[in-house]
Known about the structure:
The chain is of the alpha+beta class. The protein contains eight helices and 13 strands. The strands form three sheets. A six-stranded mixed sheet has the order 3-4-7-6-8-12. The radius of gyration is 18 Å and the shape is globular. 44% of the residues are buried. The model has no long low-confidence stretch (mean pLDDT 97).
Amino acid sequence: MPSSLHYYNFSPDVTAFTTTRHGGFSVGNYASLNINPHRGDDPLAVEKNLNVVANELGVPSERFVRQHQIHETNFRLIKEDCFKLTNEQREEWLEGIDGVATNLTGTCVGAFTADCIPVIFYDPIHRAIAAAHAGWRGTVKRIARKMVDFLWNNFNSCPDDILALIGPGITLKNFEVGQEVYDAFSNAGFDMDAIARKFPTMNPQPDSQAEKWHIDLPECNRLQLINSGLRAENITLSGIDTYDNADDYFSARRLKVGFGTMFTGLFIH
């Protein structure tokens, strides 16, 4: 039986991981370890899945921060007051949030993804952690760079000290996009020679173009982090393509509708 969690050798001060599709209670396109309560999955299964993850990590389930992401760049700073809210109040407070940060120990923050790119951060000097959900829209809006600024503004985190990990997501060879997506990156000032290539059209139809653009989302985010002042050697890439590994990781492009997500997260010991 494959492990329910994929761990990263990120820092001895934190545990960093990604949930997989193994070891949970959800069924169908949610199978099986979906802990995202915002995807239409059976709520009882979601909470049972959360308990599986919490028990393996040794973190109380109520100390997992599970925001509702909407492909924007709104952030929340997680303080102890967050855990004094009712479940309904906390859900409302975390609505429309695509990045979270904290310096609380034993508190797990992360990003929900299924082909989008999760980026997690650790400042070992100020012992602060963060996570950002970088789909293509968030990447165009430079969510990774904005999270570096958020860490600076809230914890005085120097970019030179920050460790970052770019987790499982869709990679260049599988992220085929329309011209409008290419144009969105180009108009936002990205170096298109560094992040885009044309490949033969995937699943071509009789009237489709012979080639289409592909965007390298992990590289987009890596370059954003470097441009934000992070050292290249402090940025780790998981190297896991969710589209190619859809049996182990959720892939929106494979599952199409009604699917679960992974949670790439971390907590301070």
